[in-house]
Amino acid sequence: MSDRIRQNNARSAAEQIAPRPNGSVMTYGLVGIALAGLGMAAFGQFYAVDILAYPLLVVGLMSFAFASGIGLRKARQIRHHNAYKAEYSERSSP
């Protein structure tokens, strides 16, 4: 079996185990910010708190959400890479 065929087979098997992240780092970060904003708005409405009165808290939570989105993408990328390496080594051994 040629190396190219092994790579393709390992790549398709790794996609089943741990799919590659589709979006960019920026997309994951912006989705994190949007979800944090929705969460803060729901919190503010439920507890009748003006969240915008605490700008440092808002900026801190948004920064944390952005970093968490980037961390999630990196974790998914690592998981996919490890699955690919495992599948490739499994297919290359006779």
TrEMBL record:
This is UsfY protein. It comes from the Bacteria. Keywords: Membrane, Transmembrane, Transmembrane helix. The chain crosses the membrane at residues 25-46, 52-72.
